[in-house]
Design goal:
This protein has 284 residues and is mainly alpha-helical. It has one domain: Rhodopsin 7-helix transmembrane proteins (Rhopdopsin 7-helix transmembrane proteins, Up-down Bundle), CATH 1.20.1070.10. The chain contains nine helices and four strands. The strands form two sheets. It has a two-stranded antiparallel ribbon with strand order 1-2. Strands 3-4 form a two-stranded antiparallel ribbon. A hairpin with a 2-residue loop joins β3 and β4. The longest helix is centred in the middle third of the chain and has 29 residues. The chain is globular, with a radius of gyration of 23 Å. The chain starts with 9 loop residues before the first helix and ends in an 11-residue tail after the last helix. Its main location: membrane. It holds the Pfam family Bac_rhodopsin. Belongs to the archaeal/bacterial/fungal opsin family.
């Protein structure tokens, strides 16, 4: 059986039973297309990782894993899997129950931190800042997930907490991290990538408010909105690789594999650092 079927019968095999507003046939077709984009991008990153030096593969490794997760989650959504029927408090013209795809949030839990990690490594900020920003992105996604599963207007409380968290994240990635990147001579490339990412992040709250939050657009329309944003994030991953060709990984201190098992003059760094004993065993 083909992984990506030529004839889309996902909704016949996995019908959206027990929900008023559900994914349509055209919506499933669109999700299969996005799945293909993620899968092809994953294979491309995996292949490209073998075309550069081992010390310059850090971004390949980060985004290869994120793209694999994206391909799996979009496969689940295109197959009409990974969802729950959740009652709605607003815009009941679209039905009193709505398909909420938790697979979408699983993708973001991996995709957002991967880009944060990439920006953090490029900017040279401390690991404390990077880890803090990753936790902020997790909090943002999880509060939106909680909002999506809340059946009353109290969902907007979770939405507010999550959106405020994104504002903190935006200030960190556009201000503090940019200053650090400028000191390393990559400020222009950094602000291009960070600006691109934050422009997309600005639209995620809008898309959520119209779909899983406010129930103002249907499931298929919401997937078109989110799918375009996610594909643009995939393109951002490729932008990292294109710009990385001009970066000095040694100066940025991200040529990690150069320091594993490195040898100088036939002697490993660990051996060189060890004290000499002159071949004489110490006295008991």
């Amino acid at each position: 059986m083909a992984v990506l079927p030529l004839e889309n019968d996902a909704l016949n095999i996995n019908p959206p039973v027990g929900v008023d507003e559900a994914l349509s046939q055209h919506g499933s077709d669109w999700l299969w297309a996005v799945t293909a984009i993620y899968a092809i991008s994953f294979i491309s990153f995996l292949f490209l990782s073998f075309t550069v030096r081992a010390s310059e593969r850090v971004f390949h490794y980060i985004f290869t894993f994120a793209l694999l997760v994206g391909a799996v989650t979009y496969y689940a959504q295109a197959s009409d899997l990974g969802w729950s029927a959740v009652g709605q408090a607003n815009q009941l013209g679209y039905g009193s129950s709505h398909q909420i795809f938790f697979a979408k949030y699983i993708n973001w839990v991996i995709a957002f931190p991967s880009l944060i990690l990439g920006l953090g490594l490029l900017s040279g900020v401390s690991w404390t800042t990077i880890v803090c920003n990753i936790f902020l992105s997790w909090f943002w996604v999880l509060t939106y997930l909680a909002a999506a599963y809340t059946t009353t207007n109290y969902k907007w409380g979770f939405f507010t907490f999550g959106t405020f968290t994104w504002i903190i994240l935006a200030l960190s990635t556009l201000n503090e991290s940019h200053e650090s990147a400028s000191l390393l001579g990559v400020g222009r490339d950094y602000i291009t990538l960070a600006g691109w990412l934050n422009l997309l992040w600005l639209l995620y709250p809008v898309a959520f408010g119209l779909s899983d939050g406010g129930n103002r657009i249907g499931v298929t329309s919401s997937f078109i909105f989110f799918g375009i944003l996610d594909v643009l994030m995939v393109l951002l991953s490729f932008a990292f690789l294109i710009l990385a060709r001009n970066w000095d990984f040694g100066k940025l201190n991200i040529a990690f594999s150069e320091y594993r098992g490195a040898r100088q003059g036939g002697t490993s760094l660990k051996e060189e650092a060890a004290p000499a004993t002159g071949g004489i065993m110490p006295a008991a």
